[in-house]
Amino acid sequence: MYFGRLRGGRLGAFLAGLGFVLPGFLLMLGLTVLYVEADLSGKVDEIFYGLAAAVVALVVRALFRLSRSFLTDVPLALLAVAAFALTALGGVTFVVVLIAAGLAYELWTRAGTREARAPGLDLTLPVGLAILAAVAVPLTAEIFLEGLKAGLLTFGGAYTVIPFLQETSVEAQGWLTEQQFVDGLALSGVLPAPLIIFSTFVGYLAGGMAGGLAMTVGIFLPAFVFPIFFHRQLVGLAENPRIRPFLLGVAAGVIGLIAAVAVDIADTSIVDVPSALIALGAFAALMRWHATLTVVWVMLAAGGVGAVLQLTVL
Question: I need a surface site. Which of 95, 241, 283, 305 has the fewest CB within 10 A?
C-alpha cells in the first residue's frame, strides 16, 4: 500500500491494498465456510493432525526471526522474557504488556539524559480503545472493533496479530476454542496469501458471514487509512528518533507475547511423538528454505505426512 501510494497516489495505494487483500480473503472465506458448514475438521481430521503440528513450527520460526532482528541488547531480551512471564504466568492483558515494555525500554535508554523525565508516549490511543472495549455494541460491531484494535495495536507482520486475536477470541470472548484457533492458522498457512488473513476465519466463527467481513475490514482498515491519508506523517514518524526506543520496547514485548502463544499452540497441537517430529521437521524445512511458497509447501507436506501416519500407523 505504501509503494502503491508512492507510485499512484491515493488511488494507487487503495488498488495495491485491494489486490493484496482480496484474493486471500476470498480463498480464506471459502475454506472457512467449508470448515464450518461441511465440518471439514471432522471429515479430514487426519490432515489437520499434521497441519496443526506445522503451525507450531511457523510460530517458532517467527520467534527466531523477530528475536534476531529486535533483541539487540540485554535489556530488550529481558523485556521479552518478562512479557512472556506476565502473559503466560500472570495473565496480564496484551495492551498493558506492550505499553509497559515500551515505556520501560524508553526510560532505560533515556536514563541520565535530559529527556529521562519525559517519555515520548501518547496514551490517547490505548485509553480510547479501552473505552471502546467497555461500550456494549452488537456482535458484528464488536467483532469489527476487535479487528480494528488488532490492526491499530499490532505491527511488524501477521505474527504480532496472533497473540492479540488469541487473547480476544479464545480467552476473553470465547468465540473459538484453542483447537479452532490453531485450525484457522493452519488453513491460512496453506494459502498463497498473507498469514494475517486468518482473521477472516476468526470473524466468521465468531459471527458468521457478517462477522468474517467485519473482522477483515477492521483489521485491514488502518493499513489502508494510514498510507492513503497520513503518508507524510508516517514518514516523519519513522524518522523520529524520540519514538524509536518505545517501539523497540514494544517489539520486545511482542516477542514475549508470541512465545506465550506458541506454548499454548504447542500444548494443543503436539499430542504425541509423531506430531512432535512433524513439528521439528517443518521447523527445519522452514529454516533451511526461504522461497516464496516455502510455507505453503511445508504446510501441505506436514498435512500429508500426518494423514498418512493417521491412516496407517496411528
Answer: 241
